[in-house]
Structures are given as C-alpha cells and as structure tokens.
Amino acid sequence: MSARAGGRRTVAVVSPYYPPKIGGVENYAARIAAALAATDDLRPVVITTRPAGLRTTVATEDGVQVVRLGAWLRLSNTPLSPLWPLQLRYWLRRTGAEVVNAHAPVPGLADLAVACAGARPAVLTYHAGSMHKGEPGSGLADRLIGGYERHVLPRVFRRARTLVAVSPVSLAAGHGHAVEITPGVDTARFTPGAPASQRPRTVLYVGRMDRTSAWKGVDVLIRAFAEPGGPPGARLRLVGGGDAVPDLLRLAAELGAGDRVQAVGELTGEALVTELRTAAVLALPSRTEAESFGMALVEAMACATPVIGSEVGGIPHVVTDGDTGLLVPPGDPAALAAACRRLLEDSALADRLGAAGRRRAEERYAWDGLTERYAELFRGL
C-alpha cells in the first residue's frame, strides 16, 4: 500500500473503539475518517480493536480501510494487548501513514500509537476531563486513573506534536500545542420535527449505560421521575445499551416508576433521529467532568428538541442556561424533575429553547466545518 497512492497522503486514525460500536468517540473518529476519504489529497486508514477475537482483520468499511487488532484482555472499558507496539509499528509502516491521529481517553491503544509514531507527527485528540469516577466502590479504579493521569498522560501529551481538546474541560485544553475542535452533528440528517410543545410527553436519554459509566447519572434521571414533583403523565425512554440496564429498570420498579420507564436498546441511523425528533425533552444528567462535551445534547438541539444538562464538565459550554437549554446541579433528582416539568408545561419556553438549540447547532457544530479544520491541520503537518 503506497503512502501516496494516487498522490494522496495517508493519515492513520487510531481509536480504541470504532463503529459499529456506538459512542461519541467512535462517531467522532468515523467522521474524521469519512471526511478525509472525501478529499482528493488525504487518505485515511483506521486502526482500532476487535469486539472479540485475537486475530487482526482488515476490511474496507464505508470506503475506509479499517484494521482491527485483537485484544488479549479487557480491564473495565479498556482493551489491552502486549502485541500492540509491534502491530502498530507494522501497520503504520505497511499503510504508509505519514500522520497519526490517536483518540483517547481510553488508556492503551492511543498512548501506544503516539509512542510508536516515530518521526511521524502525532495528533492526539483527547475527549474527556478527568476520568475520576468518585462513585462508591470505585476506590481502586480511581487510584489507577489518578496514577495514569498524573504520570503517564503528561508524557503522552508532550510526545504529541499537536493536541486537540474537544472542549475547554478536556485534559488537553490549555496546553501550548493544543487546539479546540469540538464534536459535531450532521445538520442535514438531524433536522427539526414538530414544535416541542406538540410532541408526546416523552423525556429521552441517549447514551451508554454501563456500570463503569455510572457517572452518566441515569439513576438520577430515574429518581427524578419518582419525585413527588416529577413530570406528570410523562414517559422516560432510555436509548443505549450496557450491563447497567437491568439495574436501572429494577431501580425504576423499586421507586414505583417502572411503568413509565422503557429501555429501547441501542439505536442508530433513522431510528435514532426519529427518537430525537419526537421527544419533548432530552436530558443528560452526568455527574462528573468525564462528560467533556455531551454529543447527545447537540444532536437533540439539531432536532429542535429542548435539552436539560447537568452543570458539570463540558455541558455548560454546550448549553447556555435559559437560552439553548436548561442546566441543573449534578446529582439532584428534585432539580432535574423540576426542569423536566417546566419544559413539559411551558409550551412557549420549550419551543423557544428548541429553536435556539437548532440555530446553535447550525452555527457552531455542523460537521463540515469541523472536519475541514482537521484536514487543514493534517496538511500543515
């Protein structure tokens, strides 16, 4: 495989996970790869991991070459293999990569990609603030995360030629060689439905629901529905997958809200767009700075769906309270219940916030302009 096949220069996009796995980092990496594939002078190759199995696979997916490496074990959400240093060097050489774009915060593959880049300039895109969980029973995990963020990550940051922070609370923000390029949304696909006040009384959550991601705060949203002042006559739809889904449904039943909470599984494509266009409210009740952006918020805003987010992490940089959505204190079911009730009962407010959210998505978060910044960054390197 030539480094400049057809005169195009190769960029290796290295991400621990990649579609069809659903997630903000995965979608971001896939958007970069698709945008590069559409240019005349840049060619992407994706290096990622397999969901299962040890052997390396190579395939063309949506016009992009994707190399999937096997993982020997998984610690929490982190795949690992002692073979990756050798495999990364081999595939960077084999594909003729001239620039490496690694995506973190999942430790391991991205760190090694920066280390194995050699003379190639490495661009590290960092998608989170501190991953410190602060949850009951997370003591060991938090100690490991703390050691990684204090001792390993700074070395990786120094090694990278350029850092990309996805929001002002990303751990990459503020470094002298960092730029900010947020995630984006396809505003031609995520489009407004009926005015929010005319939609069914549905509150929507979109995101992962793993036990290791308890900081997403889905339990807070369920508790909000069980509050005496919770949204009357409303239903909560949970879109996403993870091993915590049964726990969350059990919590809803214990709190007497089981008949109003429905988990619909992972959705993509038009099914996801339909959920966002028909919900009356989308809520993102995250607890910690691990939520450095909140992709679901921007997708809902593009659909003119009013949003509620916690006042934590990168969410306040996406949602302006009272202008493009509502902000509530993290971990506060009563405040979240009041915000949901307010949007469901105040038609004028819901419609105004929905329309303002759509304008913000078009002006600031359309993917085309964001991926062009990446292409220019790679060309400059």
How would you describe this structure to a colleague?
The protein folds into 2 domains: 5-184 and 366-380, Rossmann fold, CATH 3.40.50; 196-364, Glycogen Phosphorylase B (Rossmann fold). Helices cover 37% and strands 20% of the residues. The chain has helices at 24-37, 84-95, 109-116, 139-159, 218-226, 245-254, 269-278, 295-302, 315-318, 333-345, 347-364, 367-380; strands at residues 9-14, 42-49, 57-61, 64-69, 73-75, 78-80, 97-104, 122-126, 162-165, 178-180, 202-206, 235-239, 261-265, 281-284, 307-310, 326-328. With 381 residues, it is of the alpha/beta class. An 8-stranded mixed sheet has the order 3-4-2-1-7-8-9-10, with helices on both faces. The protein has a 6-stranded parallel sheet with strand order 13-12-11-14-15-16, sandwiched between helices. The longest helix is centred in the middle third of the chain and has 21 residues, at 139-159.
